[in-house]
Specification:
Blueprint: H1 4-7, H2 10-39, E1 44-46, E2 58-64, H3 68-79, E3 86-93, H4 99-109, E4 113-118, H5 129-138, E5 143-146, E6 151-153, H6 158-162, E7 172-174, E8 177-179, H7 185-206, E9 218-221, H8 222-227, H9 243-249, E10 255-258, E11 265-267, H10 273-286, H11 292-318, H12 323-347, H13 357-376
Parallel strand pairs: 2-3, 2-5, 3-4, 7-10, 8-11
Antiparallel strand pairs: 1-10, 5-9, 6-11, 7-9
Helix pairs in contact: 2-7, 2-11, 2-12, 3-4, 10-13
Length: about 375
């Protein structure tokens, strides 16, 4: 191979530099984030001094809107938790289906259930922050544990495992959510996207930067919530009842990660691309309100993907660099990605999906670009 023409071409050298830099960035991300999360053996990760965790009283809080079918599945798992002192606070926000009757029947048999019905729209800010605040204010226990109607605890020891993070000065405990497989391509997309999202925020938390969390499995002390002002600083932003509160108030000293499988919750996948993309758009919408450092961190991975593919294609199409080397670089990147996604898929209980991670990554590269543009243009929030 003659590299004389390559060395004399500034255009080619720039593309090669971009290809190498993006290749290194992607390989580091897979190794430092995906592999770190997938191989983490700890059930509880905390920067606090080792203190035996107590069993604080717990209020499970969630907001529902026309979710009676989900409640029929999730309420037995919530109300039958094996924990000495807990209550379940459910805020029924203007439901028009059978949600009220489901909650009424459950309350007759379970005194620990505390349903709150909001029949009129007095929410000046849109979104679920107002009804969620009502739920937190109505809670009577020391610790708040958030979840959603479509999420079912994996075990009846869910609460017991989540509160293991409350030792020393811990004020917030971050868990994770799994997506149930349904054998469809849409279901596989959702499982992969959830796996990558979990890896992103858990990996960052393991490195000392808990920048976000999922409201399907998140806990904080009730007095900490009010001391930090709750959602007051971002009430005008429709989304972000979970991630913005974490982004503004969590740090490596006051938060803990729970990676025990028994502390996870499992959600049903959305049955249409439209509903799923709407959920993702809500998440992308709130990222503009993160700190600049977090926004910069979150842009490195997708930017590296774009630069890598663009440089690879331009070098290949132009015929200005040996195609054998380009194919070898692409193959190395794909192999390393699959190797790093294997333990990650096992961690989040997904079968065989790691083999297709390069294909999924290619899809999300373009889908997320479109959704980011859509999210930036959103003017009104729909209930999710």
């Amino acid at each position: 191979m003659n590299f004389e023409n390559v060395l004399n071409s500034t255009y080619t050298l720039v593309l090669l530099a971009l290809l190498v830099l993006s290749f290194v960035a992607l390989c580091l991300y897979y190794g430092l984030v995906w592999l770190r999360v997938g191989r983490c053996k700890k059930d509880v990760v905390s920067r606090q001094t080792s203190v035996a965790a107590s069993q604080p009283s717990v209020s499970v809080v969630m907001v529902v809107h026309n979710e009676s079918e989900f409640l029929k599945k999730s309420m037995p798992y919530l109300l039958e938790q094996d924990y000495p002192d807990f209550e379940v606070v459910v805020v029924d926000y203007m439901s028009t289906d059978d949600t009220h009757y489901v909650l009424h029947i459950c309350a007759e048999n379970y005194p620990q259930l505390k349903p709150i019905t909001l029949k009129h729209d007095v929410n000046m800010f849109q979104g679920k922050k107002y009804p969620l605040s009502i739920g937190v204010k109505s809670a009577t226990k020391d610790v708040i544990l958030l979840t959603e109607a479509e999420s079912v605890p994996k075990s009846f020891d869910w609460i017991s495992n989540m509160v293991q993070g409350y030792s020393g000065g811990t004020q917030m405990v971050i868990g994770y959510n799994l997506v149930k497989g349904n054998g469809t391509l849409l279901g596989a997309f959702q499982q992969y996207e959830n796996m990558a999202y979990n890896a992103s925020y858990i990996g960052a938390a393991l490195m000392g930067n808990p920048y976000t969390a999922t409201g399907r499995n998140l806990s904080y002390r009730r007095d900490f919530f009010f001391k930090q002002g709750g959602f007051i600083s971002h009430y005008s932003i429709p989304d972000g009842a979970d991630d913005l509160f974490v982004n503004q108030n969590a740090n490596s000293r006051n938060s803990a990660l729970i990676l025990n499988s028994e502390a996870s919750v499992i959600s049903e996948p959305r049955n249409t691309f439209g509903l799923w993309h709407q959920d993702r758009a809500h998440r992308l919408y709130t990222r503009r309100y993160y700190g600049w450092g977090d926004r910069l961190m979150l842009s490195v991975y997708p930017l590296s993907q774009i630069v890598f593919l663009a440089a690879l294609v331009l070098l290949f199409i132009g015929g200005i660099f040996p195609w054998q080397i380009l194919v070898a670089v692409l193959a190395l990147k794909i192999i390393w990605q699959i190797v790093c996604s294997l333990p990650l898929a096992k961690k989040f209980e997904i079968k065989k999906i790691h083999f297709f991670s390069p294909f999924f990554e290619f899809y999300f590269l373009f889908a997320n670009t479109f959704l980011t543009y859509f999210a930036l243009r959103r003017k009104k929030k729909q209930w999710r």
